[in-house]
Amino acid sequence: MAIFRSHDRRPDAGSAALAPVIVDRVQHAHLELIPTPKAHLQFPALPPACTVSVTCSPAKDIQATLDMAAQLLDLGHTVIPHLAARMVEGPDHVAGIASWFNDHGVSDVFVIGGDAPEPRGPYLDAAALIAALLDSNARLTNIGFGGYPDGHATIPLPALAEAITAKQQLLDSAGISGWVSTQMCFDTKAVTRWISQNRAAGMHLPIHLGIPGVIDTTKLLTMGAKLGIGASLRYLRKNRAVVSKLATPGGYDPMDMLAPMARDIETLDIAALHIFTFNQVTNTAEWRRAVLDGAGPTESNLNTGSNNDSGTSTTAGAASLTRG
């Protein structure tokens, strides 16, 4: 079963669902891919010259992220590699990564702490690696890091708030732009509240709103448990109407999350969408195309059988989303 599928739903052109700000964010959405052996089979489904975020996880090494990023660059896409701090071995490794960025013209990077149980070097969290990258010769212009509207499975809320401040200060001091990419969360009110509270606390970086794409329901819920997004899963359990929509063909699509936030997108400075595809790109790309064409996704333009070659593993996908 595909989640966020909408059969014969065509939002009215004047509705909030097709507000210009939402159409703009959908058009320029960043699509996340996981570097698996079959990930290249998803490349043809990507929109032309789109922005692709390539994850990093303990199941692979950083070179796997960079290798896939190079393939996507060769196809004309803009690429944002993810770097997991706990997988970076030391200053020489940072220097090598910086050289790779410069050689390939990569100026944007997303930095996480990573879920490796034992760090491979001195970088225990995202802030430490960001500092090292800023001290390197990498010609970076934008550095992103994670935000957690649902909280984090292992990091207390006060520590999460302090980490946002520390990472933002690093970027400000270096004169580097950045962004905060939110963990997947199903409760739009919780997301809006989290952004508003952090704005009040001094967070000024733009937000990249993390939402799941058109993916298999079972995979999404399984990944939710793996990723520790317990609050969102509890929200689903308490809101049976939402669960019913998730389980009903044609009952739900990403626009149901975006439309309620239409009035707040610019006020909260939600500058981009970060769509978790879990390497099931075709359906999300068709949904995107349908939105841009002014029609909701339909049975005919969502091929739910196209995901057999996604090559996605829950282990490989988890790390890019879980630790800040």
CATH architectural type: Alpha-Beta Barrel
- What is the residue-averaged pLDDT? 82
Describe the main β-sheet briefly.
8 strands, parallel, barrel
* Distance N to C terminus: 31 Å
Estimate percent helicity.
25-40%
Structural class: alpha/beta
Query: What's the domain count?
Result: 1
Question: How much strand?
Answer: 5-15%
Keywords: FAD, Flavoprotein, Oxidoreductase
Family: Belongs to the methylenetetrahydrofolate reductase family.
Pathway: One-carbon metabolism; tetrahydrofolate interconversion
Pfam family, one: MTHFR
Topology summary:
Elements (H helix, E strand, L loop, with lengths): L19 H8 L2 E4 L17 E4 L7 H13 L3 E7 L6 H14 L3 E5 L13 H10 L6 E6 L9 H18 L2 E6 L5 H13 L6 E6 L4 H11 L2 H9 L1 H8 L7 H4 L11 E7 L4 H12 L21 H9 L2
Parallel strand pairs: 1-2, 1-8, 2-3, 3-4, 4-5, 5-6, 6-7, 7-8
Helix pairs in contact: 4-5, 7-12
Keywords: FAD, Flavoprotein, Oxidoreductase
GO cellular component, one term: cytosol
Family: Belongs to the methylenetetrahydrofolate reductase family.
